[in-house]
């Protein structure tokens, strides 16, 4: 059973005069970079660059910093006043040696299921919430990550979302990206369960665990506009949200890791629900399929 509870926040209903616009390009080739994550430093204001590298973000305070990050490029922090053209430098890294095994994939197990089968849809703005998958010894016989499965609710067809996989750093926070390139997932309209094939990456379940994150792409293609009428004042306004909504499950946790303002935050249960006596937090409805 899926309970649909859409909660809309007007994170994106920002006056056009309070926006900064620019373009993100590769510093070597000059080509535009699509789907760059852009944040106002230490604030829950974010956006994503379009396929042509252009972006708009809801601040015009020239003294604030913008943080630009994209897989395969070095993170860059730039003043708003200097962000009309942003050049990102490609990252230089050495690929680990990959051993290709003749995996027969006879065994499979799905991990990350919750006892609570009721899933709720929230629009949390640009914030990204991580789901942690701990490692257990029984994963030894099915140690390869084959698929990620996500539950979403989309008002439009072909909405897109970006998948991130992170290892665990020395402080228990999401650390390094485990994928070597952006993984953009296209989703169907409605409430759907989507399987994302990860077998080509040859990813072994880390013994320190793994974080799975789905990032909403705040681009024109995903924009959903709805006219809201105030019958008391006889006025209307346009409410803007972005598809898809990720479904969440209530689980017993003390905290949740969220990415906002260009950094990971450890949000305690009391911070998330200050007036609630509940022992639960909401985490993304995501599972993993492991295979041998």
TrEMBL record:
One of its GO terms (molecular function) is carboxypeptidase activity. It comes from the Bacteria. Keywords: Carboxypeptidase, Hydrolase, Protease, Signal. Gene3D superfamilies: Carboxypeptidase-like, regulatory domain. Residues 1-18 form the signal peptide. This is Carboxypeptidase-like regulatory domain-containing protein. It comes from Flavobacterium microcysteis.
